[in-house]
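WARN no homologs supplied; continuing
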Amino acid sequence: MKANGRVACGGLLILAALSVLSCTKSATTGGAAPSSASMLSTGMNLVNALGGMDGVTKLADAFGLNLAAKPVTSKLLDPATIAQTKLGLVNEIAKASGMAAPNAGVDLVWTLSGKGIDASAASAMTSALSPGADAV
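OK structure emitted
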């Protein structure tokens, strides 16, 4: 059960990134955002959609700042864990895009496991990712 929760947490962050990207692209282009399936079928991956690894890093940095600013998450995640979470997010986005993880030895699921992340904290983490997409 704990393993499923850890996988779900990591998956939640990736899905949140995809949905935020879709909302952001839809709002900025004035049209419908491409679906995940169409992004993959046209060869577009998440890293490219975020503006390359620089965009992914900006998203992760904004995510980290937002995690630290939210009372729910800052109680559960110390600064070192937030730093590892940022690196893990970069790795997960790279892997979801078919690339090698750039931060060797950092695993998002492992970093967040055992931190007491409940539904409220997971919601706060998801909402911490949304404003980060605006920075990209």
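The chain has eight helices and no strands.
OK
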